[in-house]
Amino acid sequence: xxxxxxxxxxxxxxxxxxxxxxxxxxxxxxxxxxxxxxxxxxxxxxxxxxxxxxxxxxxxxxxxxxxxxxxxxxxxxxxxxxxxxxxxxxxxxxxxxxxxxxxxxxxxxxxxxxxxxxxxxxxxxxxxxxxxxxxxxxxxxx
Length: 142
Prior knowledge:
Blueprint: E1 15-18, E2 25-31, E3 38-43, E4 46-51, H1 54-65, E5 69-70, H2 85-88, H3 110-120, E6 124-126, E7 134-137
Antiparallel strand pairs: 1-2, 2-3, 3-4, 5-7, 6-7
């Protein structure tokens, strides 16, 4: 499981997580006061945000796939590989009907920042290799 230094997942006490290869640190918290509610990621001075429902939606998709799914991390505007978590997170076929990222120009890198949160919450198992990491769902019922 990804290393959490401390944090409860609020703006005043964010989770401190690492990217899947464990190479970079970032902060993340839930902001339910936003419309829509957001999962906010702070990487240095850069702030990204994703529709908070991405956590439940991604978990449901991973459960449906039933096996390992490549992350396929990519910046917004860069092509994604079919079948990856990143591709799903911007697909018109996902429950949101497109990008889960809320800030134009900063809507990519979903797989890089959301997958460690899914792991932290016990919703997914995540690989931590130097590259080509994958994720798979953990059932909430055990």
